[in-house]
Amino acid sequence: MNPTDGLYEMRTRAPASAYPTPPTSAAESFAVRHQQSQHDLKQDFNTLARSTSLAGGGHSRNPSSGTTAGMGTGRRLKGMHNVRMSMSSVKGKKRKWSVDVENYMVNNGPQHIFTTLWILAQLAYFSYSYYTLYTAQNLSFFRSLLGHGLPLARASANVINLNSALILFAVCRNIISLLRITFLNRVIPFDKHIAFHMLIGWSLAFWSFVHVVAHYFNYMNVERAVPNLATARGLAVGSGPGLTGQVVSVAFFLIVTATFEGVRRKHFEIFWFSHHLFIVFFGGLLMHGAFCFIKADLAPGATRVTPEAQCRGGASFWKWWIASGVAYLVERILREVRGRRKTYISKVVQHPSKVVEVQVRKPSFSSKAGQYIFICCPEIALHEWHPFTLTSSPYEEFLSIHIRVVGDWTKKFAWRVGCRFGDTEEKSLGRPTSLPFVMVDGPYGTASEDVFDYEASILVGAGIGVTPFASILKTIWYRIANPTSRAKIRLRKVYFIWVCRDKEAFEWFQDLLSTLESENVDDFLEIHTYLTGGLKADEVKNVMMNDQEGVEDAITGLRSPTHFGRPNWDGIFKQIRGVHGGEDIGVFFCGPKVLGKTLHGCCNRWTEATEEGTKFFFNEGKCVLLAKSCVVGGFFADDMFLLWDVQKTFDLFSLFCGLVDWVMAGCCDLVWFV
Q: Which GO molecular function entries does the Swiss-Prot or TrEMBL record give (predicted)?
């Protein structure tokens, strides 16, 4: 291993207070009030701008930047304008409900239609199974003993088998990545495999609840009818079906308790290893139906009982599970083989806000813009794999990722590669003499790959959620710089919007954005940065001075001005629709769910679902930087509160058994990102 000399870089820029400060009474007044709320802070900025002639008269430091109106045209502080005016004007326009439905169907139609059809198919299969079992002639004895509990338990079990047969396919990353590049991707939204996985998980939760509640009533009915034969408790924990149910219930409990947001973020190891109990889960289900709890009546005239004649159904789960089980086994073997590729770290860059950039030697595989990889550092944890979005371009000779240091693994990794954040005692330890090797698995595809399939694209990143777009922006630069490759792409315009709370975050990709801005060909790219957090008084003074005298933004170092406050999304979409009338526009987002819902709503509102209308297609990208990489990252964290309410209503024991099959909704090998 080579020494680490020259491999490290500390990325810092001069603070705003380092620039000369002009004597401005408005700025002095702002210094007294800078501790106010965010709403008051915005008002102060507007007052400050008016007092220094920055917010009026069409002043612009870069008139040729081509900034779209409504996004801060020729104005530093125009991002502060009241959003409510735009929103009220949108709501004030009365449109036919049919138009709203048509616009809504552009982004939501296929998924909701599929969801409805899937639910109806399950209900139909349940109804058919229930009717068949309730009218079966050879089950009259058990039907008289158990009543409706018999068909309820068996019919729900059939639907559970159906869902279990499909749920593993959604976690086969290699299969999904291969299918994305085929013609099938045009008709089947493979990027929605997480939504499909969640849908199956909810279905399993519901039908499992029905199944377990029905069987608990069956146990009690058996005890009442034949008290000398067995007790309900004995059937629940002493019989074959009952014992296997308890095993999978315990596995379910351990998996679910590790899915809470706090555990998953701060103790990823617990989350990772507990989710491998899905092996116990499937093993228990394979044996669960083999004990033949439901037995058919004896045929007329029969003098003895034979297993073939007596057992109703038997072990049938394997017939449903075998296809997806084999596919998933092949998937895991392929991951193990691919994951053995070793590579070495070539460069480490310590960025502000506890972000580490790691560059590694490129293994022997090809990647695309917006994809992600899995990283394993054996020196830290041999069996832990963490996903990270690639921030390097496919045209570069190395792979780069940006890691935000928040969890146990990321802290250990940052320490091992020599990054120290703000602790003087840690800094005194110096850099390590060598860097560890890492193993790489991937790359895997995401919706961000489709950015070149539209005539215009809007890239929206919030905070560290900008990382998928770093690779995309680099790829855009390489393609635009090459006239041959540029002629082959459909994309003609890119709007890049980056929203950050802390001004230091803009330093992560400052060099990249500066290069793209300086070599912007035919105004192909527009960069818009928004700062939603507050500034100190001396930083405000620097912003004022730099805006009047300089050509570069005091915060980002770009020619494009920084807007203060949250973007006026409806104004942005309205203006872009006016510029790109009749075109298909892709909206790619990575960041918090709340902002994603806002953008999704804007896509529906501003889409014109006509043949010649402008259509906004929402694509929520996968952003992985925090090593908290389960597909159900938001699923379990948000919905476990619902489970806890159910737990208060029903017996804890019944809850665990009832939701046992839901464990696969948290399969640890899926990747869903913030």
A: metal ion binding; superoxide-generating NAD(P)H oxidase activity
